[in-house]
Amino acid sequence: MPPKRKSARASTMADSSVGTPSKRVRNSLSDASGEIVSESTPKTGDKRKRGRPRKFPEGTFPKPSTDGPKRGRGRPRKVLSPAETAAAAKKAATADNTPKKGRGRPRKEPGTATPKATPTGPKKKDGRGRPRKSLPANGADTKKEAAVPSYIPPKDDSGRSYWLMKAEPESRIEKGVDVKFSIDDLASAEKPEAWDGVRNHVARNLMCDMKKGDYAFFYHSNCKTPGVVGVMEIVQEHSTDESALDPNHPYHDPKASRENPKWVVVHVEFRRKLKKQVTLNELKAHAEAGKPLEELQTLKQSRLSVSSVTSAQWHYILQLAGDDTEDSTKTESKVEEDEDMDAENEEDTELPQ
């Protein structure tokens, strides 16, 4: 079999490989006799080591003297004079070797174990917020008993209900009409007054629950000093509020009709003024937790112009006004007796002679 010929490409690559940088360096290190000089022996005669080669051969550069202080980095050391050296030595001899008390946690001496403190009581936790209330030694309950109101309302056997109704005593023009109505206006009325203008459904429902003979507080509202000023009586139960059907009235309701009037009125009569006005601030002061007026509806629902009052609340407000409960009951009974006498006299005058 004839020998294979080398391709032209292979011969070209072989020739070019001779000219690589590594081979060129190797060829340059060859001497005239053809021997290769070892790269591990530098020209200085020192054994080749790793890292940066030495600049000067050993022995050609004098080594620094080791007798004096070595040159360090940073600020040079201060050379003391003989007098300063003697003063420093004297200060060191007279200095107290007791360790100074430092700040923070004390240093723990090696080889000494700190004994753990034995707790004698319940373990306390350093918590955040309000401190824990300590329990009494005898284990008694520390809860406070509920405050019992000192006021005991008188017995009320009248069977009537009590209410509170608000009106504005100061002038206010609404659609060209003055809506002012005070206790004095009610006192000067010659006939029962219709309590109209109520446009709240809750207040309307309360007015529908009113019965003839019920009593109501007259309350001055939307003024400089609001509060309870007098007492009036419901003399006629609810009926249609004609003001809601009148287009010229300030409280006209276009949705109301004769078939569906929506709003009602009750007729009231003046009975008396209170000896002292019970202001709104006084009512609030006696409406705190545990006090008799805590559940007063007019304070809980302040937007209602008509609200209910319990018998206990009624008598308590009278007491705040300085009205004696017994005297007020006698006065009310006397008014009823006078009305009955007037009715009898009218019947007698109608009889034929």
UniProtKB/TrEMBL annotation:
It comes from Penicillium angulare. This is Thymocyte nuclear protein 1. Pfam families: EVE (PF01878). It is found in: Nucleus. Residues 9-20 have a biased composition (Polar residues). Residues 1-154, 321-353 are annotated as: Disordered. Residues 162-320 form the EVE domain. Residues 83-95, 111-121 have a biased composition (Low complexity). The keyword ATP-binding does not apply. Keywords: Nucleus, Phosphoprotein. Residues 335-353 have a biased composition (Acidic residues). GO terms for molecular function: DNA binding. Its main location: nucleus. GO terms for cellular component: nucleus. InterPro entries: 5hmC_binding (IPR052181), AT_hook_DNA-bd_motif (IPR017956), EVE_domain (IPR002740), PUA-like_sf (IPR015947), THYN1-like_EVE (IPR047197).
